[in-house]
Amino acid sequence: MELTQKAPLCSSGEKGIDLESIEAECRQFCTTYSKKTVRGTIWETKVSAISQQRSWFVLDVMSLFPFDLIGLMIGGSGGNNFAELKSIKARAPSAGGQSGLWAMTLQLVEPEILGSKKEHRFPRWINDIESSDLEFGIESSKSPLRIYVAAFYFCAYTMTSVGYGDIGPKNILERLVCCGIILSAGLCWAYILGEVCGIVADMTSESQEFRKRMYHLNCMMKMQEAFYQHVLQELQGRMTEEGTLLRDMSPQLQSEVSTVLNLTWIQKVTFFSQFLNFLELQETRGVHVVPYKACIADIAKALKASAFAQRESFDNVQVLYILSKGLVALDSRVGYNGAVWGEDFVLSDTSLIRPVAGYALTYIEVLYLTRDALMEVIERRKASCPQLGRIVRQHFGLL
């Protein structure tokens, strides 16, 4: 490829590029910006001029020099090479633009032949790629796509500071893969750097105190949640173990143990207390009361355990609660170990139930019995112990 064939094409657009650059420079110095002051809004031009002088003003002015005339004065084709490089200024300073810039550079800059020795005035990085592709019969210099990919790969690891020679792809597929890896790593690095800069920019005493407070709060919440889950699992495990042990006993022994363990709160529930009085009366009369006591064992098996943290609220719609540990506020009174509330849980109409809101003053453990569980026991023991269902209906005036 002869450079003289390209020179007319480059020189024809050279003046247009120069005029466009001069017009852009003048526009930067003439552009006005509004500025609000106590006297009102004023328009200034020095803001743009100062910003332009602090950026690429010197390089922009140097790019307007007539390198073609300088080349003629020096002699040789070096000036023509510089003149053609002037067209590179029309490219955008982005990754794609820089790729096109290097692709144009690799095409425009030709080695000079001095005598019988071929010397390169500029680095010909494309030759390494071309020589490796020639082994497979591919001429990279004749493929615009391969030139652009090679230039894009060069610009990618130049802009991301990967380093020259750290990665050495041998074909176009490897270059594309390396470009993807380099750009992904560059984006990750830019994101991490931005996050670090954001943290450093916000490292005031107030923000540090806020973060420290939030950190301790999160730690405390995790500890409380872990403690609550541990206690709840321990409570449920204990209830499961006690239930398993109770089921392994004989039916009569189950009745005796259940009566002793639950006698404290059973006496506080009116209809259960009446049922116990009925059992004592039948026992004094010499009546066989083992089927009656089996009802108490079934009720004990139907009990479930739960735990509530301090300052936690809960309700008792169709649920009978028995407090086994801690202190609880029940509307206007305070309940302690053995307290019972929600005795009207057997009513099917929830509008007739007197709501009692529970508020845990300390960590509490409760046993609770649902209406469905009690009705299931009454239905199952209807033939052997009909008195329990009769006492419950009489207590609430039900037919």
UniProtKB/TrEMBL annotation:
This is Potassium channel AKT2/3. It comes from the Eukaryota. Signal peptide: none annotated. The keyword Ion transport applies. Keywords: Ion channel, Ion transport, Transport. InterPro entries: cNMP-bd_dom_sf, K_chnl_dom, KCNH_animal-type, RmlC-like_jellyroll. Pfam families: Ion_trans_2. The keyword Transferase does not apply. It comes from Symbiodinium microadriaticum (Dinoflagellate). Residues 148-195 form the Potassium channel domain. The gene is AKT2. GO terms for cellular component: plasma membrane. GO terms for biological process: regulation of membrane potential. Transmembrane segments: none annotated. GO terms for molecular function: voltage-gated potassium channel activity.
